[in-house]
């Protein structure tokens, strides 16, 4: 099925998508804070874009969206019909980056937790 939006409308919609301080991140942070956990968010001192860092526990929490990170079994994890080769390539790169970041953090002694948007 072709895109129902014009190119201008699609561009506007895509420009509004945030990579930091998303609603699922805000929900997770509020929950952690209410339980007494103190954290750092999007801390540039670390090698990658970490959503939530709990330095005291040497733990990192990634909040992944089902669409952008292609959560297996999630209804949001679909490849758009328009420009599908671009999207397939983009998602493959995102997944490879996620695996690499997780492995590097674990090798450095960090515990890594991945929360999916559909689970929050």
**Count of DSSP strands:** 4
Radius of gyration: 16 Å
Distance from N terminus to C terminus (CA atoms, Å) equals 30 Å
Low-pLDDT runs: none
N to C succession of SSEs? HHEEEHHE
Strand content: 5-15%
The structural domain count equals: 1
Q: Could you say what the CATH architecture is? A: 3-Layer(aba) Sandwich
Structural class: alpha+beta
Helix content: 40-55%
Strand order of the largest sheet: 1-2-3-4
CATH fold type: Endonuclease, Chain A
Oligomer kind: single chain
User: How many helices in DSSP terms?
Assistant: 4
Average per-residue pLDDT, rounded, comes to 86
Could you describe the 3D structure shown?
By secondary structure, the protein is of the alpha+beta class. The chain has one domain: VSR Endonuclease (Endonuclease, Chain A). It has helices spanning 7-15, 23-34, 66-69, 84-107, and strands at 40-41, 52-54, 59-64, 111-116. The protein has a four-stranded mixed beta sheet with strand order 1-2-3-4, sandwiched between helices. β2 (52-54) and β3 (59-64) form a beta hairpin. The chain is globular, with a radius of gyration of 16 Å. The two termini are 30 Å apart.
Q: Which descriptors would you attach to this protein?
A:
alpha+beta, 120 residues, 41% helix, 14% strand, 4-stranded mixed β-sheet, globular, Endonuclease, Chain A
